[in-house]
UniProtKB/TrEMBL annotation:
Catalyzes the first and rate-limiting step of polyamine biosynthesis that converts ornithine into putrescine, which is the precursor for the polyamines, spermidine and spermine. Polyamines are essential for cell proliferation and are implicated in cellular processes, ranging from DNA replication to apoptosis. PANTHER family: ARGININE/DIAMINOPIMELATE/ORNITHINE DECARBOXYLASE, ORNITHINE DECARBOXYLASE 1-RELATED. This is Ornithine decarboxylase. Keywords: Lyase, Polyamine biosynthesis, Pyridoxal phosphate. It comes from Araneus ventricosus (Orbweaver spider). One of its GO terms (biological process) is putrescine biosynthetic process from arginine, via ornithine. GO terms for molecular function: ornithine decarboxylase activity. Its cofactor is pyridoxal 5'-phosphate.
Amino acid sequence: MILDIDDVFEKVKNWKEKMPRVDIYYAMKCNTDRVLLQTLAALNVGFDCASQFEIETILSLGVSADRIVYANTCKGFSHLRRAADLKVEMMTFDSESELIKIKQLCPSAKLLLRLYVCAVSGKLRMNQKFGCDESEVPCLLEAALKHNLSVIGVSFHIGCRIQDPDEYATAIAMCRQTFDIAEKKGIIMYVLDIGGGFPGFIISRNHSTETSFSDIARAVNQAIEKHFPPDGALKIIAEPGRYIVSSAFTLCSKIIGKKRRFVDNEEDIIYIINEGVYGLFLNTIFHRVRPVIKEMSPSSNTKRSSIWGQSCDPIDLIMKKCMLPELHVGDWIVFEEMGAYTTACSTTFNGFEKTRVKRVASRRTLSELEKIAGSKLSQILHAEVHLKESENK
């Protein structure tokens, strides 16, 4: 696996240019590569953490507690107690039972009420498990007042891989209504968290049906300007994960086996590679993501193929019915956009080791990061990051 630090650097830069009012709180669950996290911390990015381990990891990088949002609406008792000890106070909730737990273990918390948002065009929806319905908002705000807890804002997550950017506008309008309801109850909110769901793919033929980041940024900016005009008091944050890391990681996987089978009266070439769904391709099962194979040398003689993982489990199927030029054992298949929910979800099932990550960067990016973060990060990067081969001459 290769991590391109340049890609991460450009993604953060692009975000700040296209959504200047929205601060990044990177969704750490998406990819926990330590050099990646160190780079983001140096770029003054905030972090969305979901557990004690994630919080402790981020704080160990020198990030201050106020740059963390504990974005898990149902927190374990020991995790919540540890967050309180570490002064991580901004956190989400969506039920009164969570409020009671927070009152007991972290009474100084600064709370974000997570709303139930259903993106009709999304391919991965969050609404079944997370968020409160609009009708519950008044009762939950009153419950927070009853428990003498501070509610400072609202959050939502639109879902992933949406096709209609205006669904962000609808969700932001819902947040405005919640701010207004809170104000009538004497609660002054000053944080708007617009969650995640931002695409991180390389704009290409592979994603012709999906909405680009630029389209979403345009819709978000317009909605924010309409419902939350600049007044200096409001802090707007988002929790991008895929956007930051998806295209920054590329997997080079070797073919270790090859067979021919007839499926539906048509020949299918089976390739077995040294990865699988218990490793970096868990995404294909849980998120129904179809891997992106880097274009190979042009060939008019493509054949129906399927790509399988190396484990002994018969469900270890990575891709089926893909058209590829005929390949051979020992050849390499390169998969692009492998940064999101890959290394973070990888297991050692069947005793296969996790794939190692090689980090690369250009001189220009390393120089820019040193200017921003100083010599300490520079020493880390020079120890962990390889100079791109085109410049290493």
